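Before a colleague's protein record goes any further, I have to sign it off. My question to you is simply how this chain folds and whether the tokens agree. I do not need a full report, just your reasoning and any doubts. This is what I was given:
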Amino acid sequence: MGNDKYNPNRGKNPYRVNREPEREPTPAKFATSLVDFDTQRICVSCGKIIKISHNFCKFCGVDLSSIQPLGYSDRTLKELANTALTDPNPGVRKDAVDTLGDLGESEVLGVFSYILLNDSDEMVRKEAADELGDFHHPYSLDVLAKALKDLSPIVRKEAIEGLKKIKKKNKPEKIEKEAVEEDEETSEPDEIEPETIEFSESEIEEEKGEQQEEPLEKVEQDDEDQ
């Protein structure tokens, strides 16, 4: 027999069959969201996380006072945003982004900006770029411009489409034209029927004639008295 002095498993039967059942691998846990929407918000323009109380982004200087933080919205939108940011399945994240676009307003734009710059899946990033373009908000121009350097061509293409949508919607001449049309509609006088105008003019002529005839009659009466 060999010397078992150096055998580390001296007390273990090498011929015993291991009949312990194999355990199923535990599913991947949800990643913890980097954004606490109760205390933080995401800048629409640069996609950076700032305090919810800040009306100006400390990274890019954009005024966010006109955009309500997502933390002040209903719970459904916040849950959808967390799913879009943290779900391990790219398809689920993509659907969450699409649903946020259908249900939310400007408060969800920051989530799209963050996803566009940070999500690992190109289809999710593409969906975020598409939603930013559909909202037509001028603050999204900067983050879409950053996405033009994305490694994925489909994301770059969608970013170009988003830029075109926003630029087309926010052209100064188009906005000015719409404002002029609204002013013309509100200031346009009510039309007067031609018959009413003719009648009014005839009345004026009759009144003038009567005023001219009165002095002649008075002169004739004075001559008779003399």
Remarks:
- Strands lie at 40-42, 49-51.
- The chain has eight helices and two strands.
